[in-house]
Amino acid sequence: MRSRAPRATATAREPERVERSSGGSGAVRAVSPVVSLAVPDLRIAKPLREALRRAADRVAALPAAVEQGTHADDLRFQLEALQAAISQAAAGETPLLERAAPAVPVQKVLNLLRASLVAELSSLREAVPAGDIISLMSAIEDVQLALDRDEAHRFASRLSGAGGLELIVEVAHDLRSPLASILFLAETLRKAQSGVVNPVQERQLGLIYSAAFGLSAMASDVIELARGGDRLVDTALVPFSVADLMRSVRDIVLPMAEEKGLTVRLTTPDADFRLGHPGALNRVLLNLTTNALKFTSEGHVELTAKQLSRTRLSFSVQDTGRGIPPEVMSCLFETFRRRRNAGEYTFSSAGLGLSICRKLVAAMGGALQVDTGAAAGTRFSFELDLATAPRL
């Protein structure tokens, strides 16, 4: 086990100075004392070692280098640890960075150290071979890479911990509000409500809308996944118009369809007003229609609701796309799908959404079915018992 390097000590210290603000109020602010760090035995050329030491002194004297709650001694120790890691990397060893405390902003300190070192190197009076300087800068990048890997490992550990799911849900919630604003503004501009839009701009706005809608749908899917994927927003049966619900789905996806040159067809039932769970039904139909548009390059997507009996309706989303490959069918409803490279997993927007769709349909009393073929496209369908309701 590596022993902890000795804490950096100040070999020269000036008294703490104060500066008066320019506002004339007489307020003062503290300025960190200038310190000279006891640099470890760096295995690099002496001019570069001295330049690195002076760069560390600069950073230690910067008030901006210490964040609230971080002690200056921890900063100095972090600087010494960074210098030692850079020296190890320059010697061809794997850089090992010890953290003084979790609160120390090590990435920020390394960036400041790198910037200060560049300034020091530019003012060197002694000639230093370019190859040595390149080796030193490469060593810093090696330390940066080691830090990046460490941060990724710590983030993955946090995700797999007790609060990992809550963190994902918080991020997804934070994404939805700005994405909703982007969707609204893109559609407003696309409809020329803010002025004339030329064809190129209209196409670009369609792309913006489609991309933002895809991200928004993914965020919603993640939140639903955290809730189990079968959460019915309407806990009690409520009256709703099937035709209005289907038209709202078409209106949302229309910019995506128009961007790809596709049409969205609707077939609504005769007995329109029903009792059911419109929130869940809307989510299922919207997800299925979005996926159909995503995997269809020409033709149309048809959204159909057909009355089978007085209370039973059949819903389907049919596309004229290329169909689903056989190797995908076996894991179509899996939340995670394995990449071709072993050991790598990915969130699949289609898989995640379809998994939730199947759970929501089951919660409403149905079963999601799929039929696909290379020449016939893909058709998702399900049946629900929905009692008739008086017209709203």
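the 2nd protein, sequnce then structure:
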Amino acid sequence: MTLFSFIFAMLLEQVRPVRDDSRLGSWVANALLRIERATNTGDLASARWTWLAVVIGGTVLTWAVVALLTRLHFLLGFIATVGVLYLTIGFRQFSNRFTEIQLALANNDIEHARQKLKEWLAHSGGDVMTRVAAESGDVSAICRESIRLALIGAQRHVFGVIFWFVILPGPAGAVLYRLSAEARRVWADARMSEAADAPLSPFGEFAVRAFSWVDWFPARVTAIVFAIVGNFEDSILMWRLRSGFAPHANDTERVLLSAGAGAMGVRLSVPEAHSTMSRVDEPYETEALGGPWPSLAQDLPDLSEANEAALRSAVGLVWRAVILWVILMFLVSVGHWSG
């Protein structure tokens, strides 16, 4: 049922997409803010217990409801699974903004592209590099930051959801991943995009840390998938070189973006801290990161500047990765049926 549920949910999402600014998304974000205001006592313990109640509680509740419906009738369980996947997975929950930027650049309307990138930044929570590109960036900077947000969006709306959907029973895994990603976006990322130097609240700190646990393995699986469907050698090389540096809260994004940059052969930005970014092809100023580290610029592959062609390359990379995931789910299903 895993494969067919995923296919039906993807087809439904293509026919009637759920945007990231939908009523449901706004309701979830507002609910998370109200829960934070009601339970925030200023310490990490309240953040931890609230996160567990929201994310783990929502996961268990989803599993129980779908399991009950499945026991009543197989078709009811299938419909419930498709419905949950439809609400938690999908390209249109982030790709509409990417497409708008593509169209603006194709029409040579750089101001409109900056405006769309600024709207995307306000919703998804970028950092200083994205903010600079949205305010005064040239075509290359806009393309670079759009690809970065698209790859992260693909991970949080598609690949990470697929991973946990396959691992946990029913659609519970999809809910686990999306709730943890949404908690990070609302409690941490959105506020960092408003004020890059503002300290995170305990809720934001724990949301970032918890999501890094949830996304640690899925991000590395996605990086391997990018390498397989893209330039394998350069992707693995970029991943290997960047993984040797000091860990930080955005380590999973660093792995994902490094592998994606190598797979496409395009320079991207990778996170080094909450408020700083580094170009993926630049040597490090390493004392602040626990160095000194040797400069590895001479070992990096020859990456090109991001442009409009790179936007199309990013779309192709994501779709090839989805096809590979479908093949993997088919093989898992065949193994399950054979067993």
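The longest strand covers residues 269-271. Residues 273-278, 280-298 have pLDDT under 50 and may be disordered.
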